[in-house]
Amino acid sequence: MESCKRVNLCALGGGGEVGANCFELSFGGHQILLDCGTHPKKEGECCLPAFDVLTRAPEAYIITHAHVDHCGAVPYLARMFPGVHGYATRPTARIMDRMLHNSVSVMETIAKERGIAEYPLFEHCDVGYALRFLESFEYREPFFLRMPDPVEVQFIEAGHVLGAASVLIRLPDHTIFYTGDICKRPQALIGGYKALDKDTQVDTLIIESTQGAANDETYRTYREEIEHLGDAVRDVLLGGGCALIPSFALGRTQEMVNILADLQEQGRLPQVPIYTAGMGRAIYEIYQQFSDHLMPHATLRPLEQFERLGDMWNPSVVERLLRRPCIIVATSGMMVENTPSALIAQHMVRETRHGIFFVGYLDADTPGHKLLNAPVGAPLQFQLNSPPVEKVLENIRQFRFSAHATRSELAAVVARIKPKNVVYTHGDPEALAWMEQNTGAGCNTFVPAIGQTITLEA
Ligand SMILES: [Zn+2]
Ligand SMILES: [Zn+2]
Fold first, then answer.
1. Which of 5, 155, 239, 302 holds its CA 20 to 30 A away from the CA of 381?
2. How far is the CA of 181 from the centre of ligand 2 (A)?
3. Structural domain boundaries, residue 439
C-alpha cells in the first residue's frame, strides 16, 4: 500500500455527542469502520449511525466492546453490506451475540407496545449472519485485516467491561490509536486500562471524552464509594426494607453483585438474598467462561449464589419479593419504563422502608433521573400506558461507580501518548470542550461533528 501519511476520518456517530459511535477511517483507497453502535436515547432508524454519508462499502469494521452504543448497529451494517468482515476480542464477540439477540427482542417488544413501524431494525437471522463474519482475537495479538493491502491491528486492554479494547492500527507512515471506552482504575472484577508500550509512536489518537465535564477532584475514591453504598444498603435492610440497585446488564451488574457479596462476607451487610435477572445473568455466564480475563485476584462468585428474579410483570410476584429484606440488582440502569428496575421501583416508591440506589450515569430525561430528583408526593410514571404512582419513598440516592476514566486520567493518556493529532469523541458538548481546552497542548486537535470529514496528517 502507498504511504498513508494523510488519512481521513468521518464521524457517523459519536461526534459532538456520546451517541451511536461509528467512525469511518479512509486511507490508501480503503475504508474501515471503527465501532458501529446505536444511539441509546434515540428510537427507530434515528438510533443508527449516519450510514447515508458512506460513499463506498466499508471493507471491515472493528468493535471495541459490546455496549450497544459501540456494536448495536452491526447486524444492520451486515444487511447493507453483505459479507463485511468484523473484528473484536474473544469475550466481546461472545457478549455481542447475547446483546444483539437481546436487542432484537427488545425492539420487537417496543414495536408491539408503541407501534414503531421501523422496529425491529434487524432480525435474529441478521444477527446470526453478521456474526459469521466476525473474527475474534486476544489482546496484544497482532493480526491483519482481510483486505487487498495488509493492515496490522492490535487490541489493547481498555478496562471498562469484560473484553473492552482500545485499537492500535498501523498503516504505512501513520499509526492510529482509538481508545473506545476506557477505565484506568481497576474495578472489582476488571483490571484497569493498560498503557501502550513506551516505544509505540502514535500519530493520531482518537479518544473518548465521557467524563470531560465532571470535576473529579471532588470525588470520593472507589473504595470509599463502596463503603458509602454498603452503609446505605445495610441501613435499609436493618430497617426491614429492600434495596434496589438499577444497573446496566454488561459490566455494572457483574461488578455490583460481587461487591455486595464481598460486603456480606466481611460481615458488613446482613446475609439477605441478592437477586439478579435475565441479561445480567446471561452475561455473568460469559464472565465465568472468561474468568482468565478478570483481575488476577478478583473473586467471581458462582452465579447460583445469586437468586433469580421472577416475572416482574406480575404484581403479586413483586409484592412477595418485597415482603422480606433483600438486595435487587436489576436492569435498566437508568430505569427506562417497562424494564425490571422500573417495574420493581413502581412498588417500592409507595412505602418508606425501602432504598433505591443508582450506581451509574443517569440521563436527564430518563425515569431514573426524574425519580431521583422528584419531591415526595410527586406522581411518577414507571410503565407505559399505566397511571402514575405517587412517590412516598424518600431514600433515593446516587453513588458514583463510573467505568470511564476521569478527565484527569484522560488528560494523562493524551500527555503520555503525545500524538500529532488528537480527535475528541464520545462526549457531551461541554465534556468535549473541556477536553479540547485542557489536554493535547502542542497537538492538532479536532472535535468532528456528525457527517464531517477531517484530514489527519502524520
Ligand atoms: Zn461502554
Ligand atoms: Zn460508550
1. 239
2. 5
3. 6-215+403-457
